[in-house]
Amino acid sequence: MKDTMIGVDLAKHVFQLHGASMTGEVRFRKKLSRPQFMRFMAEHPAAVVVMEACGGASYWARELGKMGHDVRLIAPQYVKPFVKRQKNDAADAEAIVVAAQRPEMRFVPPKTEEQQARAVLFRARERLVHQRTELTNALRAMIYEYGHVVPQGPVHAKRIVEIIEAPNSDLPELVREEGRDLLEQIAEKTARIDAKTRKIAALAAQTTAARRLQTMPGVGPMTALAIEAFAPAMGTFKCGRDFAAWLGLVPRQMSSGGKERLGRISKAGQSDIRRLLIIGAMSRLNWMGARSIREGSWLARLRERKPKMLVAIALANKMARAIWAMLTKQEDYRDPVPAGAA
């Protein structure tokens, strides 16, 4: 049984360690360079090593796990209340140990190399989309100065091309040249986005879990890959509501005195999966997806009396719970059977 807990405040070059017994007595405090840290942990008997879930934490969790240590990660917001007075590396390392020794503390599962690789691809596509949006907005703003108003969105790029390339265009030649340069950059970004979208679709077709997720209406390759890249194993959640809460799709509680008060959705969880689930839910509520909504169902009744966005968030919550059930039971999506149906 491991009798030592080591809190590690991670950094690029200098690591602060706080060693303590499992009951809290301080055993050592060390400030080590990166090579010294590797050597010290390799020579130290197997211990419980705790770090904040930050950049590089999953890498170190894998490396220290190979040395026989029991590695645990804590969300930084759970460590902050245990920092005593001054904020420094030594105080942070001590706070990590104090927080980890709380019996009710929740830990973050380290990510695998495959999860991190898929996350890199997902983030790369998101970054390109943001860059293309920035370029498009700059182009729209430029021609707006000459009285041309173009709606937002890449689908209206053709209209911008027509304005710039029109034979009788009222734009100065210098502005038209800059406009063509921006259009070339937008086209280049679009080509790269399309290539990464195809790569994501190919990856989402390789695993059983991703293929299973795509049997649910409103879940495509992008959402399936995001769940594989960012979500921990579904076994870490006791029920589907816990997974929905982790995504930030449940109401924020402000209850007191035995009276339950619920506010807006918390938005306190994984933003990428939450955003994609809400987009998928909206696609099920649009004019085409609405045809598949069964009359008299829960969703149909909610659509009649609530705003569309609120209905989409409620549906995304249901989708999150269904995803938990599908992955834990290893079953494809099944349409809910209406009450009273044979």
Describe the structure.
By secondary structure, the chain is an alpha/beta fold. The protein is built from 13 helices and seven strands. It has a five-stranded mixed sheet. A hairpin with an 8-residue loop joins strand 6 and strand 7 (262-265). The N and C termini lie far apart (56 Å).
Q: What would the keywords be for this entry?
A:
342 residues; alpha/beta; Nucleotidyltransferase, domain 5; 3 domains; five-stranded mixed sheet; 52% helix; globular
Read across the widest sheet, the strand sequence of neighbours is 3-2-1-4-5
Main sheet characteristics: 5 strands, mixed
User: What overall geometry do the principal axes of the alpha carbons give?
Assistant: globular
How many helices? The count is: 13
Average predicted local confidence, pLDDT: 89
Percentage of residues in DSSP E strands? 5-15%
Radius of gyration: 26 Å
Helix content: 40-55%
Order of helices and strands: EEEHEHEHHHHHHHHEEHHH
Number of domains: 3
Which structural category fits the helices and strands?
A: alpha/beta
In the predicted model, the low-confidence regions spanning at least 5 consecutive residues are none
Report the span from N to C terminus: 56 Å
Number of strands: 7
Question: Which SSEs are present, and which pair or pack?
Answer:
Blueprint: E1 4-9, E2 14-21, E3 26-33, H1 34-43, E4 48-52, H2 57-66, E5 70-74, H3 76-79, H4 89-100, H5 113-144, H6 157-165, H7 173-204, H8 208-213, H9 221-230, H10 240-246, E6 251-253, E7 262-265, H11 271-285, H12 298-305, H13 308-329
Helix pairs in contact: 5-7, 5-9, 6-7, 7-9, 9-11, 10-13, 11-13
